[in-house]
Amino acid sequence: MIKYSLVCRECDLTFESWFANSKEYEKLKRKKLLNCHNCNSYNVNKSLMAPSLISKKNNDKIKNDYNKYKQIKKTIMEYQKFIKNNFRYVGKNFAYEARTIHYNDKKKEKGIYGTASKKDLRELREEGIDTQIIPWVKDNSN
Ligand SMILES: [Zn+2]
Fold it and tell me: Which of 21, 23, 40, 132 has a CA positioned 20 to 30 A from the CA of residue 65?
């Protein structure tokens, strides 16, 4: 006996069925004796995924992780939007611009954001210039 996980191409129902062997599966399928429990469609195929891999628990976990990821991404995107609206983008000139602001004491100047190397950040910190590292996600609308 062999147990196959089957999936209906019409309604996406996944179910398990026992067969004497793989030949019996082929025979039943050819003779149109293999149908979906839900919609009676004969468009039923062996599922490539083992049922244990897509158990409800795992499925929920995947969904959960995905939602968590989406939530984090949303938070970062909101943060990015705030920064974009309130800070001046200086790109790779970040270290230079940060020093300019720091040494010219331009307190009223907008904050800046951009990219800097780890070395730049370390040097800025040694000079007493505060920097914040924030995660940045690619914004597809850009
Ligand atoms: Zn079906």
Answer: 132
